[in-house]
Amino acid sequence: MNDTICAISTAIGIGAISIVRVSGSKSINIVNKIFDRDLNNKKSHTINYGHIIENNEIVDEVMITIMKAPKTFTREDIVEINCHGSIVNTNKILELLLNNGARLAEPGEFTKRAFLNGRIDLIEAESVMDMINSKTENARKLAINGIDGKISNLIKKIINRLIKVNANIEVNIDYPEYEDIEIITKKEIEELSKYINKELSKLLNESENGKIIKEGINTLILGKPNVGKSSILNKLLNEEKAIVTDIAGTTRDIIEGQIRVNGILLNIIDTAGIRKTNDKVEKIGVEKSLKLIESADLIILVFNNNELLTDEDLELLNKTKDKKRIIVVNKMDLKNKIDFKKFGCEKIVKISALHEIDELKNEISDIFKLNELNNKDFTYLSNSRQISLIKKAINVSKNLEQALKKEVPIDILEIDIKEICEILNEIIGESYDEKLIDTLFSNFCLGK
Questions:
Q1: For residue 394, what are the contacts with CB-CB under 8 A and spacing of at least 6?
Q2: Of the candidates 57, 50, 53, 49, the residue with the CA atom closest to the CA atom of residue 34
Q3: What's the predicted TM-score (pTM) here?
Q4: pLDDT for 322-350, tens place per residue?
């Protein structure tokens, strides 16, 4: 962290402007070597016009922004060179910086320095990348709440209460002779335990909303051959993504597409028709389709109104019974042969993929309560690291609850309270494993 790093912060390609970012104690000095005006005495947070030069020849006409520590993203001196957006031109300026003492930044290193220098916490850092990768308006709102610290503040509020109780327990144990200190009783720890369980469970329950907003709903279209799965995919996407014929087994591999329903991304996968087959290629496709059932957030299980239910149909109903699913009976424009009673009391969406299928979209919206989701404040945990740690903290809080019932001494209860606190500190990055941090930021793009 003592060296000075640089990278191209804008997307590589032809554009009006590119930005080359430099961060570190020698930023101004290094840029000064390739700029035709003296930057040393320029005020912080100013933009300066001039030219990048090499051997007294002009390389480009630029605007240079100077931001001096500590009021910067990394809390180090930062210089941003706004140049013309040619690939060759941008790379040339980067080359000059490298030749004059800067080092090429690693992926995400600017944000990593912001985290390590205390400018942002780990949730805020992860939200920066979520903002860059956001594909919907709702995903953008979720990310900005993370960047603004709203999610971190929820965690910190719980941590502060844990710290206060834990500190009083330690004082009670170490200085029992003090009469003017608050005595922590098991009743107060019971109240703390209820508070922790309530807040952590709320965070965990609502984390599903965060995952849906950020990643979308992984939707699997499943059924026997020739029930109209590909037609449904094409209708949902409003394009001829999949080949549609009346020949069973036309789709032999998965076909993917994305749409937005009420501001939420639907990642749709059309699968090979599920049937027993001797065709080697089709058999591989069927096996891949069945494997996808476990990871799907939603299964659209399609049946043909013009056919009787078979053993294969009943097997699919059984395989997906524990998953969130929508039963769709397609080809309602044809003569009815299917026995609807065999679906029990489960709701059935009846459609013809030759026509509009708005009822299917409405059912997806209702199942995930997407209308309600749009009216909430988007303050959710949204990645597997955060969610797994919350689950871990809930498990420890349950241990605390059981220990209270068993009349365990207060000094032993303190161990569980400390552990919950440590786990929550890991979520916001107050404590962390260096290898985890390196891995996390390596997934960021260069220049961020």
A1: 197, 200, 201, 204
A2: 53
A3: 0.74
A4: 889 999 999 998 999 888 888 888 889 99
Per-residue model confidence as pLDDT tens digits over 157-208: 999 988 888 887 776 665 555 554 555 677 888 888 889 989 999 888 888 7
Phi, then psi, of 205 in degrees rounded to 5: -60, -40
Angle subtended at Cα 261 by Cα 259 and Cα 267, rounded to the nearest 5 degrees: 40
d(C-alpha 394, C-alpha 391), whole Å: 5
Which residue type sits at 318? N
Determine the average pLDDT of the residues in 22-43. Answer: 95
Instruction: Tell whether omega for the bond before 70 is within 30 degrees of 0, i.e. cis.
Output: yes
Burial class (CB in 10 A: 0-12, 13-18, 19+), 311: exposed
Kind of pairing between the strands at 264-270 and 348-350: unpaired
Domains and CATH numbers, the chain: 5-121 (3.30.1360.120), 148-212+383-429 (1.20.120.430), 218-368 (3.40.50.300)
